[in-house]
Structures are given as structure tokens and as C-alpha cells.
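From: lab user (bench 3)
To: helpdesk
Subject: output format question, protein + arginine

Hello, I'm new to running complex predictions and I'm not sure whether the block I got back is the full result or only part of it. Here's what I submitted:
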Amino acid sequence: MRSSPVQQSSSSPNPVPSAPEAWSQRFEGALHPAIVLFNASISFDIELIEYDLTGSQAHAKMLARQGIISEDEATTLIAGLEQIRQEYRSNQFHPTVEDEDVHFAVEKRLTAIVGDVGKKLHTARSRNDQVGTDTRLYLRDQIQQIQQGIKAFQAALLKHAEQHVETLIPGYTHLQRAQPISLAHHLLAYVEMTERDWQRLRDVSKRVNICPLGAGALAGTTFKIDRHFTALELGFDQVYTNSLDAVSDRDFSVEFLAAASLVMAHLSRLSEEVIFWASQEFGFITLTDACATGSSIMPQKKNPDVPELVRGKTGRVFGHLQAMLTVIKGLPLAYNKDFQEDKEGLFDAVKTVKACLEAMTILFDEGVVFKPQRLAEAVAEDFSNATDVADYLAAKGVPFREAYNLVGKVVRTSLAAQKLLKDLTIDEWKSLHPAFEEDIYAAIAPRQVVAARNSFGGTGFDQVRSALAVAKERL
Ligand code: ARG
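Helpdesk reply: Thanks, we reran it on our side. This is the complete output you should expect:
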């Protein structure tokens, strides 16, 4: 959605703001100019305008259907609201800070367009149920877009996975070489993580998609409204059954921010791996010029700014989750102005997650090139096949713990002799244990080591191929 700049009042060079027009005659004095600014949310809740217009159109339709306003009046209101939508989209809607928030700004403009009938729109509702409705419509939309972003990112990972089922990469625990694995298996782990993210967002959507409209300020309304009609009109699955809960529930925002935080945590973990894979020490990937940046002073540098930024931006989303929890923790029922503080963090989290998903998708589509030769060298030059020697003996009847201890000794003596396991002669193997035979060499070759881990969910090539097929099908 486009946003249009919010302007300061231009009515006079030295404006003395009066009580906002939308407030009742109870107010005589003017609001302090600094408080006008402090109170206003229009600079950021303009983000909700399209949802506010849609919500108001449904409300007007319901009012007419229930005989609360006439059909003609509803038609006029709906057309006026549509005109505001067009004005906004063509960058011709410029509310000022005196409008306070998007809801007042729209109502004021509507009344300017359609005349006094515009003042009927707010019958049987409050900004409290209105803002809750807008926020839910916004978030429902954004969640769908984020879910699409997740699918696009998974597609980029799957393209690499398809090419690299039989490319080996060291697998780590404690960031120490552990056992070699299929590169596709490694990437598919992130497909699984983000698939849970996708599902979590779908679950959150169920609780986002409940309609508070018609709860009024807090207690319902004296008018014979039809809340189920507006809810249905706006595509909500349910209506809130308690009006106090309806206007004071922000659990859905907390849930969304928690789900968004996990998306970021997953992107951040992968970013960290990309960053060290690109380092000279690892050298597992190169970054193409499309996705790497240079240094202003060191001409040889090619920096992984994209994953670093994703990793860095993760903190913002975590922070917004914490802030939202803190906003709600001490609030008595029902609406409190504190709720105005629910928006900027939410909007920023949405934008951050979308931007990071897009950047990571581009990074894997165009930026990351794996180096199979370097990866092959990496898995050949270590002791990550030691478990396989123990498994070899265990398969021949030696109790595993005994085999494990023996191989530990082999690794120690090999290290001292500056040899790898593959370099031991058959006589050396046999002197360690009579069960060793010529086939030990085949058993500890990296390819075989990976292929043999064919238990369900393991890195064996057959397992990875079927996991890949399942992931592609799901996409
Ligand atoms: N701008 C307000 C918000 O974001 C709208 C609701 C104001 N309600 C009120 N009772 N003052 O929460």
C-alpha cells in the first residue's frame, strides 16, 4: 500500500489549535499544540486507511440494511468513501496532524465530500471497535503476503537442494566437524523450519480473523445492528462474543509478532551460516556481484551485507514482540490509549519480515554459488568418518561402546602420525582389531558415509531425494 505524507497544519502561520472538531462541545479550550502532536497517530496509522475505508463501507451498508440510515444515505456514504480511496491512491489525500488519526481524517474528508450525511457514518460504532477492525484487516492481508514470501524463499532453497543432493558438506555440532551430510539435507532443514513458520502464521490468522466491529466503545450499542452481517461482509470467520474483550484484545498482535520473530530467527540462523560459508576460512560459497558489496577502503573485500542486515534486523522484530507484551500487561479493561502504541512496532515488524524474506530469496536465487570442489575437499580432510568406523565394528558384533573407545584411540594415534583414517594400511587396521577387512576403506569414504545414513529423516541420498520430493509437492 502506498502511503501519503502527513502534513502539518497550514491554516495560519501561527496556528492556535482548537479542540479537534470531532470532539464534543464539552471542550471549550484549545489543546496544547505540543499535545496535539503527542496525541496524534495519523503520521503512522495512515497505513490503515484502505482497511478503514473498507470497514466503514461495510458498516454503512449494515446501517442501511438494519433501517438505521436510509439506503440512499448508505449509497452516498459508500461512494464518498470510495472517492477518498481514489484520492489516497492518487496521492491527493493529505490529512494534517489536527485530524488526530486516520479515522477522524476519513470522517472529516467524507463530510466535506458528501455533506452532513457524512456525520451519520459513526452511528453505532466507536473508534475503539473501528481501530481493532482495521488492524485485523491489515494484519490478515499482510500475513497472506508474508506466507507467499515464505513460499518464494522455500522455492529458492529447493532449487539449490535439487542440484546438490549428492554434494557433500561437513555437518557440525558445536561448530566442530561432526559427520558429512548432503548439502540438500542441510538446505531442506531450513525448508522445514520455514514450513512451520508458514503453518504458525496460518494458525495466527484464525485468531486475527475475528471481528470486533459493533462492540462500540466497550459495552455494545443501543442500535439494532447486525454484527454478523458486517463480519461476513469483511470476510471475518467469527465475531467477538464479549464486547469488552473485543475492544481490548491485542493477543493476535502478540501472536503474530511471536510468529514473525521465529521467521526472523530462522532467517538469521541461515544468514549466519551464509556469512561464514563465504569467509576465506570456510570458502564453501562465493557471493555473486548482484548480492555482495565492497569496502570503501579495502579493495579486495566482498562483503555479505545482505545476510548481515537480515541478522541485524532480527533484533527489531524481537523488540517489537517485547514492546507489545509490555503495552498490554498492565491494562485494565477496556480500551486504553496505550493501544495506540500497538501500531508502529507491528507495521515495522511486517515490513521487516517481508523485506528480509525478499532479500534472502534474491540471495539464494542469484547470490549464492556453492563450490562443490572446495566442499569435497572439506569432507575428505577430517575425522568426520570416525563414527562410521565404530559403526563398522558394531555391525560386526563388537559392542558399540567398545568400538567407540577403540576408534578414539585410532584417531589419537592417527593425529599424532599426521594421518587421516583413509591413510591407515590394512595391516594397521588389523593390528587395531581383527574384525577390520579391506571393505573398511569403502565404508569410510565420505560418499558412502553419507549414503549409508539412510534411516528415516537421515542424510542418506535416498532419504534426501524423498524429502525433496515431498517439499516440492507441498510447494
Ligand atoms: N488512534 C486511536 C488508536 O490507535 C484510535 C482509537 C481512539 N480511541 C479513543 N477512545 N481515544 O488507538
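A quick orientation on your result: The first strand starts at residue 168 and ends at 173. Let us know if anything else is unclear.
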